[in-house]
Amino acid sequence: MSTIKEVKARRVWDSRGWPTVEVDVVLESGRFGRGMAPAGASRGTHEAVDLRDGGTALAGKDVQKALNAIETEIAPVLKGMNVVDQAAIDGRMKEMDGTANLARLGGNAVIATSMAVLNAAAADVELPLWRHLAGDAPVRLPLPQIQIFGGGAHASRRIDIQDLMVIAIGATSFRQATEMTAEVYLSAGRIMAERGLLQGVADEGGYWPAFDNNEQALDTLVKAIEGAGYVPGEDVAIALDIASSEFGKNGRYRLALESRDYDSDGMCELLLKWLDRYPIVSIEDPLAEDDEAGLIAFTNAAGAKVQIVGDDYLVTDGQRVRRASEIGACNCVLVKPNQAGTITDTRAALDAARQAGFGAIVSARSGETEDFIIVHLSTGWDAGQLKVGSFARSERMAKWNEAIRIEESDLPFAGRGALVRS
């Protein structure tokens, strides 16, 4: 009864109004699982790639080629396979694709199918996905990183920093963490409105600001924490996603908002000053993915103080995580299923992080859907941290709300202890 009977694919729409892939995996028992592929705006060069149609229709972003790959190649092969054997199914899809980055069948086609298989397996045993993943192992609700200001590729580069987030390090439950974040989000909105700096919301629901420089954004975030009645660095701390690959290449960095240029050492010095000045506990992609020497230098300088997260550099790849550990670059990995391409490879990256003593943050993408599988992955795999975006827009809130429901199962909260170098 766990045999796959049918694989159905359709075009749906993500949070940016782009076409994306949705897959249903139907079992002989009649139960089914569904997966929806998200899409990133800032992407690492080594991650799995979406298969898009090109041309002029829908700005070239349609997914008919990916749907056709599912219908004509993936579905016939998966039919009759045991849904419980996730590794075999994922391995078969990768073998059929035959490329290093799933370019032929499409990373969007493969990850949507892989997620649907996993959800179908949980449905087959009538368990919530997190419980199916956890088995008898003890697991925790993750510590959330929640965006307040959006920048970089998420807000037409209005500021250079891509994500300015808060972490409720003083919270003792997931529910309390979201309540504290809500107060900070509202406080930031009031400040922005009073100063005439508010220009709407960015791709992930954070405020789209009109700051004059990056430090003004950081100063305003500190003020928002204080305005909500919390002590910066004690109750609520700051997490940054610099996304340096978006404005850095070959060891050179251009902060367009301030018309300033830095070499790798200069960029490190700037970020170290920010760490001294602001209550930052986590910093993602501080140097560009091609600036490995800079990442090593920054990790040597700051890795004992804060969590240094690799996203574009590590691209949810277990081998890259192991190598980073060996050379001393980063101490935490951002885990994105569509970046890895399959659920099996996503788990492999998380396992590599644990073996290396790295932290892990399961993460959404800027182009999201109402699918909340990442909440279950973060909980069931006991990753410890979760990054979804902001505290607005339903594709984000669906995920935070799902974690609140899961918390009713009396799971403990990871809290501040999930942070590397906490």
CATH topology of the largest domain: TIM Barrel
Taken in chain order, the helices and strands follow as EEEHHHHEEHEEHEEEEHEHEHEHHEHEH
Proportion of residues in β-strands: 15-25%
Helix content bin: 25-40%
Which CATH top level class of the largest domain fits? Alpha Beta
Structural class: alpha/beta
Pick out the low-confidence regions.
Answer: none
Taken together, the total number of domains comes to 2
> What does the oligomeric state look like here?
single chain
Distance between the termini: 46 Å
- Average pLDDT, all residues: 95
Largest sheet: 8 strands, mixed, barrel
Number of strands: 16
Cofactor: Mg(2+)
Function: Catalyzes the reversible conversion of 2-phosphoglycerate (2-PG) into phosphoenolpyruvate (PEP). It is essential for the degradation of carbohydrates via glycolysis.
Domain Enolase C-terminal TIM barrel: 138-421
Protein name: Enolase
Task: Please name the defining characteristics of this protein.
alpha/beta; TIM Barrel; about 425 residues; globular; 16 strands; about 20% strand; eight-stranded mixed β-barrel
Helices and strands in order, then pairings?
Elements (H helix, E strand, L loop, with lengths): L3 E10 L5 E9 L4 E5 L27 H15 L7 H12 L9 H18 L4 H6 L8 E8 L12 E5 L6 H22 L2 E4 L5 E3 L4 H14 L9 E5 L6 E2 L2 E4 L4 E4 H14 L2 E5 L7 H11 L4 E4 L7 H10 L4 E4 L1 H4 L2 H14 L2 E5 L9 H8 L3 E7 L3 H14 L15
Parallel strand pairs: 4-16, 8-12, 12-13, 13-14, 14-15, 15-16
Antiparallel strand pairs: 1-2, 2-3, 4-5, 5-8, 6-7, 9-10, 10-11
